[in-house]
UniProtKB/TrEMBL annotation, chains A, B:
This is Beta sliding clamp. Belongs to the beta sliding clamp family. Residues 248-362 form the DNA polymerase III beta sliding clamp C-terminal domain. Keywords: Cytoplasm, DNA replication, DNA-binding, DNA-directed DNA polymerase, Nucleotidyltransferase, Transferase. It is found in: Cytoplasm. One of its GO terms (molecular function) is DNA binding. Residues 129-241 form the DNA polymerase III beta sliding clamp central domain. Its main location: cytoplasm. Confers DNA tethering and processivity to DNA polymerases and other proteins. Acts as a clamp, forming a ring around DNA (a reaction catalyzed by the clamp-loading complex) which diffuses in an ATP-independent manner freely and bidirectionally along dsDNA. Initially characterized for its ability to contact the catalytic subunit of DNA polymerase III (Pol III), a complex, multichain enzyme responsible for most of the replicative synthesis in bacteria; Pol III exhibits 3'-5' exonuclease proofreading activity. NCBIfam families: dnan (TIGR00663). It comes from Eubacterium cellulosolvens (strain ATCC 43171 / JCM 9499 / 6).
């Protein structure tokens, strides 16, 4: 095999497939990138058996063939080469020579035949959305998935398609993040759970342009994202996702409107006096026109008032400040509306159009302080 | 005590003295910043007994007094306050109230009398140089001090003043970095060893402007740096520094001139194939007009040629690539001259004016490969 690339193209494509190379594995072949130029195109593939990425690489095929190269070494070399023409050539022992200007590397390769192809899936049911939208929707929900693996379903996100709507849901038992997106599609209703890892990695390689599209194909056990010259194939998480509709109520006793950035800065300051291990709630005291934040810890005490617009009852309620911050930080609106029922019921941060809903459970506090 | 500041001034001054707050100590008072407004000025002090920093803070004294506040908490609060007027007020129990707009913090303080003043030193012998020069000189030598404390003298840098010249030397047993600087001063000859920690911290708070001066006062056990509204007092390291003149020779058998950036990129690429733990040398093979770098490791092999200008004999010599990179990266010249004697003698990277000299010991290699 002998291939010729531009160094920038090469570095870019290696960067994309690297996202599917596992950091640890018992199968050494999975730590490789497959370079496949058996036919008329050059294709790079990486596959950790949960997540697989394939991308077409611009380049010239001087001699057809395929080879699997250690992903880390190959990526390190490619990134450090000068911005010039790069030649990759293999010999009969799979030793691969990478040449660029006056630099020449020899590294051992593995037979490309040892590398497992990505499973083929049907491409019948699909939706198309802009790459920017998909990236934003992931960013605005992914922080709510559970970190630990006790409940596998909580480590993924629900992707639900119905009636020209894509609904993305993440939850971890203390909070729920929901984003709704209008789509135009003929897709039959779908309800699948996508691993958080897939979504994290894919949002790093999406272009983030509103004009660039990504097509998402649904199959029984896989989801396939296709965009630019790349396909990302992800195994789905098995099981029935949580019924969240019954947790969402539109009744409320108190509604406030507050400047988002001011609220963030204020919570930020309140948490200065809390050591991470303390799990001290921030106490929010809502009266007419004013919200008072209080914290009282071993380090000291803090209180601060923020102007709000309020309708409904006064309320005193405690929250884990991190959960409030996580949600407030990903919202784009300048002002947010927050809805409360009572000190033991979750609050909702949501917009009028229903584009986003963040549900956060309160922390029990002694309201008779 | 009651003081009024602008938040930016306050954050800036706290940032400066924080550099002398120890991360760990058995004496809690050392983890405090002393706010002293007993007289007509407001002064912040921190002191870890090796390194002390004092800075004058712009602000209004509404009521005189002094207080010691936990440095980390105080700094965290100050940085997160809105950019507005900040009031710091203490009560009779040393509880300190920090108010800014609608935010109010109460934190415990300690009596300012418990805080040790910085030692007073004579201000007779001194030199003045630009802050930029001092910062550059530190940056261009500090990487050569020893990391471990086996030989205390190697953890500091020699500051030698004689004949209108400041010489700064760092060495770790494998390499020496020397910077010479012309100065105009009436200072008597000096030879002191300044702790590396002091130099690291001070270079973070120097302005880096060529027009701003720093005055360095020499006393028996201390060095005092004075610049802007700040003084930095550092204990010196005891002992007689190494005689390095006898290690520096101007004889050579081979001299090369090479493009610095090209050489750096080439070494960078060569080290891709070396695991940190391997301590594999890079082998440099110098012939007419050309230098070849080679590395041959368990991961693979690499060689690359670089154009050079050469006078003298051919030579094959091995180096720890990190030592070459460290020196090459801090030199400002586009082309550098490197001098060799033989494969077992150190090489010298130096300019014609003698502004900098970097000596690097070679690694033994089998030259008959």
């Amino acid at each position: 095999m002998k291939l010729i690339f531009d160094q920038q193209d090469l570095a870019n494509s290696v960067g994309i497939v690297m996202k599917a190379v596992p950091s640890k594995t018992t199968m050494p072949i999975l730590q490789c990138i497959l370079i496949d130029a058996s036919f008329s195109q050059i294709k790079f593939t990486a596959n950790d058996m949960e997540l697989g990425i394939e991308t077409i690489v611009p380049g010239e095929i001087a001699e057809k063939g395929k080879i699997a190269l250690d992903a880390k070494i190959f990526s390190d070399i490619v990134r450090k080469l000068p911005n010039s023409r790069v030649t990759i050539e293999t010999n009969e022992n799979d030793v691969t020579t990478i040449t660029c200007e006056k630099a020449k590397f020899d590294i051992p390769g593995k037979s490309g035949d040892d590398f497992a192809d990505l499973p083929k899936i049907d491409r019948n049911d699909f939706i198309s959305i802009s790459q920017l939208s998909l990236r934003e929707v992931i960013r605005q929900t992914i922080f709510s998935i559970a970190v630990n693996e006790n409940n596998k379903l909580m480590t993924g996100e629900l992707f639900e398609v119905s009636n020209n709507k894509l609904k993305v849901v993440a939850l971890d038992g203390h909070r729920i993040a929901i984003r709704n997106l209008e789509i135009s599609s003929e897709c039959s209703p779908k309800r699948v759970v996508v691993p958080g890892k897939t979504l994290n990695e894919i949002s790093k390689i999406l272009s983030g342009e509103a004009d660039d599209l990504v097509t998402i194909y649904f199959s029984d056990n896989y989801l396939l994202f296709e965009f630019d010259d790349t396909v990302v194939l992800s195994r789905l998480i098995d099981g029935e996702y949580f019924k969240i509709d019954q947790m969402l109520s539109s009744d409320y006793e108190t509604k406030i409107e507050v400047n988002r950035q001011e609220f963030i800065s204020c919570i930020d300051r309140a948490t200065l006096l809390v050591r991470e291990s303390d799990k001290m709630p921030v106490i929010i005291d809502i009266t007419d026109e004013q919200m008072e934040l209080q914290i009282d810890s071993a380090i000291g005490s803090m209180d601060e008032e923020i102007d709000i617009e309020k309708t409904g009852k006064d309320i005193t309620i405690g929250f884990n400040p991190k959960f409030l911050l996580d949600a407030l930080r990903v919202i784009d609106d300048e002002r947010v509306s927050i809805f409360f029922v009572n000190a033991k019921a979750p609050c909702f941060i949501r917009d009028e159009e229903g584009n986003y809903i963040y549900l956060i459970l309160p922390v029990n506090i002694n309201v008779n302080r």
